[in-house]
Structure formats: C-alpha cells, structure tokens
Specification:
The chain is globular, with a radius of gyration of 35 Å. It is α/β, with parallel strands linked by helices and about 500 residues long. The strands form two sheets. The chain has a seven-stranded mixed sheet, sandwiched between helices. A three-stranded antiparallel sheet has the order 5-6-8, covered by helices on one side. A hairpin with a 5-residue loop joins strand 5 and strand 6. The chain has 16 helices and ten strands. Helix 3 packs parallel to helix 5 and helix 3 packs antiparallel against helix 8.
C-alpha cells in the first residue's frame, strides 16, 4: 500500500524545502508568486525566504568577476521588491547581501594588491639585471639637503640669507666662500618675519605659510619616473588583477556564502538577543501596555517575567490580528502564525509565566493610558528618519501615550531597519479585506459606502522614545548611524 501523500499549503516552510531540488530561476519565480499572493507575509518570514533564496543564487552562480555577481543579485532584488513593495525587509536583505559582497571584494582586492606589491618588490631586489634599470640617486648625508629652500629654488652662486642678518652686517657673505662648503651649511629657521633675497629674480618667499604655494623644481631624491617606491604598494590595475581574480573567485565565493549564512543565523537569533535587554527596561509592579501579537514583544515580556512581576494590558488589534492576539495570550498559536513562530513557538502563554494579562478592546486604550507605566510595541518596518510602520492602531496608542507623557518603546531587529525615507506615507500603508469591517451581505449599504481596512499605521519619530534592537537601545535620532553601518550608499536604490 502506497504511503499517503500529505499536501502542504504554500508558505515559508514549503518554499525552504523546495529550494534544494529546484532550479534557481524556478525558485525565484516561486518566491515572487508567494509574495504576490501574500502566502508569505510579515517581516521575519519574508526576510528568511529572501536570505535563503540569495544563498541559493550565489551558490549556483558561476562568475569570475564580482561585478557580474553584484548585477545578478541586483536583478533578483528588483524582481522581489517589485513583487511586494511594502515588504521592505526584502529590499533590506538584498542591500545587506550586496554590501557584504562589496566589502568582501574590497578586502580580497587589498590582499591581492599586497601580494602583488610584495612580489614586485622581491623581483626588483633579486633581479640580476638591476644595473640596466634607472637608479634612484643616493641620499646625501647632509641634513641641509632636506631644507625646503633647496627643494624649492636652486641658489646660483650664493646661499639665501635672511634680510635681517644682512642689514646689520653681523653675518658675512657666504656666497664668496667655497661652493663645496655650501651643502654643509644649514640655513637658519624660517619665521613669519623672515624674507629672502635671491639674485636670480625668483619670487620672494615672505612667509612660511606661503612657502608651499610657490612652484618648485622636483626633488633630487624623488623616485624616478617608471620606478616604484620600495615601501609603497603598487597600484592595482586591471591587468594586474586579471591574473588574480580567477584564482581568488573560489575563495571569495566561500566567504560570501558564509556571510549570507551569518545573516540567516542573525534572523533566527534576533528575538532572543532583543529579549536579553528586557530586565533593563521592565521593572517590578509596572503596568505595560502592548498591541497586536508580535513575537518579538512576546519573547521580550516572557524574558522579563523570569525575574519580574508586572501586569500587561493587551489591546486586541481588531479586526486584522485579534485572533492571533487571543491565541498568543492563551498559548495556542493560530494556523497563520506557524511560519512566523516555527518550531520554537511559545512553550507557555503569558499567563502561565506569572504575568497578569488584561485583554482590552482598542477603544479603551486612551481611558487606561493614565495607569500605564510603559508602552511596548512591535513593528513591521523601521525607516531611516526614526519613524516606523506598525500594525493598525499603533499610531493612536502612541498619540495617547504622548498625551499622558508615557514612554513608548519599540522592539525591532536591525533587519527591519530600512534606508528608505517616508516621502509618501500613504505608499507605505497596505490595505486588507474590507469585509472584516463591513460584511458584504449588506449589499444595499455597501454600495453607498467606501470601506477601507488599513493593515498598518505610520508612526512618526517624535512619538517614539526608544528603540531596542539586537544591538541595544537607541534613540530615534541615532538610527541613521545604524543605517550607515549596515548599508552601502550605492545599494540604497536597487
């Protein structure tokens, strides 16, 4: 009897399983289809799927020049972003991979340049025909050879004397002395009031500050044209790198794959890293207000509950996320959150961890805000100006907290931080099924009313007090530094 075939619904887990035996182009089209149909949604599943797909693309690509790989990643990234523009974490992962590739390529080129320079130096030192090459002039033992006057203008017949010394006659005319002794004479130090008179009608140097502004003859100790300094690295030109790129591409490919795997590991550990800061921000007997069913927020509260006793007021986030919110509180994750939670879902609900949880409708948030000590919210995406895109209702909660002077804390992984600026707020908002607000069975009324069901809100930076990421706590005004550390300027526009 044949084993029964179990059909798996399209989602993150089925996509990851199909990556091994599917061609690269088919995997790209598969993920594009899942993003368009919203069968993979929310930040973390989209980021994980994108990172695994790029790992597959890099592993299957055959290239000898890094520029070809970068172009390939850019093309794939544009297609993924076009499939679901409001899932900004897709573009974030693509940009981080591109920045990592550029960084690894630059380090590889620096290593190759050092090897090429060292090899060139050894070949020059060990060449038997060294006498046929132009030689650098020997350095004089006289200190006066390094005088700026000797490197600037060659005196003819006499050395340069300060005018202050020639006026009172205290110094003899050195020009009448033996020319062989001129190199052993060290001219006096220059001062801002010292001027020099030259018998060949050269421009007068009146100040030390204008000394370098006058043209001079090349230094006799300079490296001759066509020769390379023994202490400096040679320029890494295209012909020099051509012979090195083919041998180092295999090693560079392994480094890039390791870098993408590190990004995947970061995605799997980010919530635990954020939760490690919970005891620093949640104290005993506090009343915490939160919203929606963010996994990051839930783990943050569970970590604090190990050593603190506090109360959580949980807004249910009706009508888009109230079922998942109820399931998180009761400890029974719903079906549509399986991909987000994975196998490490909550072992126990918030109530079993000793937390007093009060579930309230969204309309009661303002009435209870005066008793709240702290507001902790999750986020869908964080923008470069410090604002964020979060579940619908977050803006109303943040405004109520501002009215009552209650601090608002946002917990978010760095992978959600996007270098995009919110020039058009409306373009960041996704709208869901309007029938969750108004049933289509009331056909007569539906024809007369336009119903909108926004899934997200834009919360400006002035309503946020603190961001807690896997790198620690940051003020909204500091996020631009994290953007500069994680993304390259040339990759912001894919």
């Amino acid at each position: 009897m044949a084993a029964p075939i179990t059909a798996t619904s399209p989602g993150l887990s089925s996509f990851l399983k199909s990556l091994k035996g599917t061609p690269t182009e088919s995997s790209i089209e598969h993920l594009i289809s899942l993003l368009k149909r919203r069968q993979i949604r929310k930040s973390r599943p989209c980021a994980v799927a994108t990172a695994h797909l790029l790992l597959r693309v890099v592993s299957a690509s055959k290239w000898t020049e890094v520029s070809k790989l970068i172009e390939r990643i850019q093309v794939v990234g544009r297609r993924l972003c076009a499939a679901q523009p409001r899932e900004m974490v897709v573009g974030n992962i693509v940009r981080r991979v591109l920045g990592m590739i550029r960084g690894e390529a630059e380090e590889d080129r620096e290593d190759d340049a050092g090897a090429f320079s060292d090899a060139g130096t050894e070949s020059q030192q060990g060449s038997p025909h060294r006498g046929d090459r132009p030689q650098r002039p020997g350095l004089s033992s006289s200190v006066s050879m390094f005088s700026p006057l000797r490197h600037g203008i060659e005196p003819q017949g006499r050395t340069l004397l300060p005018a202050s010394d020639t006026q009172d006659g205290s110094v003899d005319d050195v020009g009448a002395s033996d020319p062989s002794d001129q190199t052993s004479q060290r001219p006096p130090l220059l001062t801002s009031h010292t001027s020099y008179t030259i018998n060949n009608a050269a421009p007068n140097v009146t100040s030390m500050f204008s000394l370098l502004s006058h043209p001079g003859t090349p230094s006799p100790t300079a490296t001759p044209p066509g020769m390379r300094s023994p202490t400096a690295r040679g320029a890494l030109t295209a012909p020099n790198f051509a012979g090195l790129s083919s041998t180092s591409s295999t090693e560079l490919k392994g480094e890039i794959i390791n870098g993408i795997e590190e990004i995947i590991d970061e995605l799997s550990q980010v919530d635990d890293q954020i939760a490690s800061y919970a005891l620093e921000h949640i104290h005993s007997n506090e009343i915490i207000l939160t919203h929606s069913s963010s996994v990051t927020v839930q783990k943050f509260l569970l970590r604090a509950a190990t050593k603190r006793k506090f109360t959580v007021i949980h807004a249910e986030s009706y009508p888009n996320d109230h079922e998942a919110t109820h399931a998180a509180i009761m400890g029974t994750p719903s079906k549509d959150r399986e991909d987000e939670l994975g196998t490490d879902s909550f072992q126990k609900p918030l109530t079993a961890a000793g937390i007093t949880v009060i579930l309230i409708p969204d309309s009661a948030v303002f009435a209870l805000m005066s008793r709240v000590n702290k507001v902790i919210l999750g986020t869908h995406a964080v923008l470069a100006n410090g604002g964020l895109v979060a579940a619908a209702g977050s803006r109303a909660i943040a405004k109520a907290a501002r009215m009552h002077r209650t601090p608002v804390v946002i917990v978010s992984g760095v992978y959600k931080l996007s270098p995009v600026y919110p020039y058009d707020f409306e373009s960041l908002i996704e709208y869901g099924d309007a029938s969750k607000i108004f049933g289509y069975e009331d056909g007569d009324l539906v024809d007369k009313v336009d119903v909108e069901n926004p899934l997200f809100d834009y919360v400006p930076a002035e309503l946020v007090d603190l961001y807690i990421t896997n790198l620690g706590g940051h003020a909204p005004s500091y996020l631009y530094r994290i953007v500069a550390d994680h993304y390259r300027v040339e990759d912001i526009n894919l």
